[in-house]
Amino acid sequence: MPPRPLPSLHLRERAADYAYAVAVQTRRLLGGPDPGSLASGSEAPVLLLPGVYETWHFLLPVARRLHDAGHPVHTVPGLGINRAPVLDAARTALATLEDLDLHDVVLVAHSKGGLIGKRMMLTDTVEDRVDARPTERIAALVAVNTPFAGSRYASYAVGRTLRAFAPGNANLLELATHADVNSRITSVYAEFDPHIPETSRLEGATNVELPVAGHFRPLSDPLVLDAVLEAVARS
């Protein structure tokens, strides 16, 4: 009997994914476009929420696609490289919505940004405690490769920033109990994500699994861009 083939480690996909992330960070350090150039448009406004250790530049292909379709796209400078706890980051992003006086906003997020976005949907103002009252400023959330159920790999991470995404994290479990807003969330995710083996499926949400691979690289994939634009237009 021939030996069973080993399961794929997706080494090529992993290498391409990390190379993409390095390239984005390099372009950011060399200077990127002015986010203000994307803030015009007559369609529903969009607020970008990047992932952990990311800036909005990771979402630049998404931002350009949405802006080309007429959506004004805004960023949250106060997030920095997005190391703050999800609740603190949500309050920072809500402050941006209030400063810009934006309404009926579609949050478009990557990875941790999706958790921030869901938390924002549960908070009326920056000062309010988090509860189950969806804010009137936010119409919907479109999240790409977000660990709504956590990632088992985070349990082995060094430092609290990444361990916060472990499946048993108390804050993550508490956020999951607020399922009433899930119907306004679209979760778009790759069929293979090297960071989230659990997948990004969210019960009660519109789930869109696509035949792409990676955690970062899908942000520039035409299939993902189409899915995000369709979800934003539907919101």
List the helices and strands and how they pair.
Layout: H1 11-29, E1 46-49, H2 60-68, E2 73-74, H3 86-100, E3 105-110, H4 112-120, E4 138-144, H5 160-163, H6 170-176, E5 185-192, E6 206-213, H7 222-234
Parallel strand pairs: 1-2, 1-3, 3-4, 4-5, 5-6
Number of strands: 6
Backbone structural class: alpha/beta
Helix count from the secondary structure assignment? 7
Q: Helical amount among residues, as a percent range?
A: 25-40%
Main beta-sheet strand count, sense and barrel state: 6 strands, parallel
Distance between the termini: 54 Å
Q: Any idea what the shape is? A: globular
**Radius of gyration computed on alpha carbons:** 17 Å
Hey, roughly how much beta strand do the residues contain?
5-15%
Unreliable stretches: none
Within the largest sheet, what's the order of strands? 2-1-3-4-5-6
Average of the residue pLDDT scores:
90
SSE pattern, N- to C-terminal: HEHEHEHEHHEEH
